[in-house]
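Quick bug: long-chain-fatty-acid--CoA ligase output formatted oddly.
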Amino acid sequence: MKTDMLVDVFMKPWSNVKPTAMNTETTLTFNMYVLLYTILAGLAILPLFLYLRNPYFTQDLRYTVTCILLGLRINRIKRSKPFYSMLDCFLDKVKKHPNKQFIVFEKSSYTYRDVDKQSNKLARALSQHASVKEGDTVALFMGNEPMYVFIWLALAKLGCTAALLNYNIRSKSLLHCFTCCGTNVLLAASGKSSPLTLVLPFTISLLIHVFVLGEEEEKCVTEGVNTLSSSRIQQASDQPLDPQLRSKVTLKSPALYIYTSGTTGLPKAAVITHERLYMASSMQAISGVVSDDVIYIYLPLYHTAGFIMGLTGAIERGSTVVLRRKFSASNFWDDCRKHKVTVIQYIGEIMRYLCNSPKKDNDRHHKVRLALGNGLRADTWSEFLQRFGDIRVCECYGATEGNVGFINYVGKVGAIGKEHFLHKANFSYVLIQYDTEREEPVKDSRGFCIKVPKGETGLLVAKITAQAPFSGYANNQQQTDRKKLRDVFVKGDLYFNSGDLLRIDHEGFVYFMDRIGDTFRWKGENVATTEVTEHLIMVECIEEANVYGVKVPGHEGRVGMAAIKLKDDMEFDSKATLEHVKTSLPSYARPRFIRIQNSLAVTGTFKQIKVKLVEEGFNPSMMQDRLYYLEDSKGYIPMTQEMFHSISDGKIHL
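Here's what came back:
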């Protein structure tokens, strides 16, 4: 009926036309009008039709366009001769806007040109005084400061690989980090050099040259340590370096070593190639960051989040970085207001700290429009938006060494990402059934893995291809192979094992469920249970230890807990235990709860049983064993039911 009325409307102007020789031409004109109006009407209702079929059509379309443009640029970069590195990207930004602020730090600021010249000076100083040359690996042991950025760019200009050390690690772990990536030179900030004392005898025997960055030239009283003074650096020329100094560096050469916890208990040096560095740095572009943005970076630069998602992502965009030594909840929003910050980074714990800070009248008075990060719980996410205003949260997922990642470009609360056809076309990933008790994938009668249906939890694995490579860990083939799954769906295929259990719902949203293996996450850091165990059994009174993570209400991740067996005729020495973990472990890895048992349960193959321990958690009413709690000012003290309730209710903050 409606169609007839529409035809009548169009026919009326032509109803009085008499048949003539021109009628054929008139009919054609009429048909063209009908066709045109039909097309326009169809285009008008198409968005409504698409929206009804897919409520996220607009976001999907925007993401599609962004990915296509980004893919074209990356393919062009891959084909360029010589190859185009993140250093080249930085140098292009220097040419494009030399006087634009690049780094703002405390009371100082540096333009793109300033940073370029400072890195030129450092490159020459390192070459002349530390004999650094193309192909060397140089380890950085320092906190967040502009010098960190200067040194990295200087090393890139010399064709070197930078090993980004976690300055919290100590003794055996620290020494391991030097050796596993073949470090030639170690650079330490003046305030970070004390932990090196215990490993200096080994660095000398390994011919690793240690330099401490100092204000003035000093005669070091410690054997094996040299000073690279500010005066020597400033005396060097700031003119551009010859690109031939890095002529042997290729797209597949290692640009960085970033350390991640391993099930062996020792950090693993994930190999970040120049290709991977550039691709991972595009996360800001995908999230909608532009050149005019100001990004606030307080996460440590030795982390993937701080260095790649933050620093090099900002370089790729050509934006300004406000750099802070470390996170401060009390200064966070004041910094954002002072520097007109528009983009912030986070890990889940950070957002909780901000939400738990005292409320102020100006909580919503800021220019922040985008928050980029990972590990944000749904309840904290909602609370953050309600309190601090209309900020677009872009939750991401990915591992430092992994070959697949997700991004929640829609902003759905609680999801770590969303599936997209372009993403699936380039990265072949799947969730497979996993037996958490036996700690292995479930196989079918043919011996192949089984995909989980939509809505069910499974282990994320991603096919290793030229498009999605897995570079593994430096000089650690055993750990590299442990992250690979072979013959997953057909004989001969090869997949990367993420170690994470995820769930994908019927709309394509991806949710993080849990982490498998001997690693848990606390305070935004991965904690290797084996490493903590090795340190605990070094305490004189402890014979055995079983370390695991337990959930705490209102906290992201899992807090460290240890079940221990004491040596015969010995009592628990809380003071000695505290002193040892404080000396040997960073704060986030220290067991917050210690449970004393007569014997530690094991399986038939002598693997320690953690499942029941995790279920019982740190509730004294769930066990007969003695339980101790690490109180910051008092050390390990007996745990009471009242303390348990205070922790669960948030009255005691961990």
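Actually, after a second look the formatting is fine. The two ends are 70 Å apart (CA to CA). Closing.
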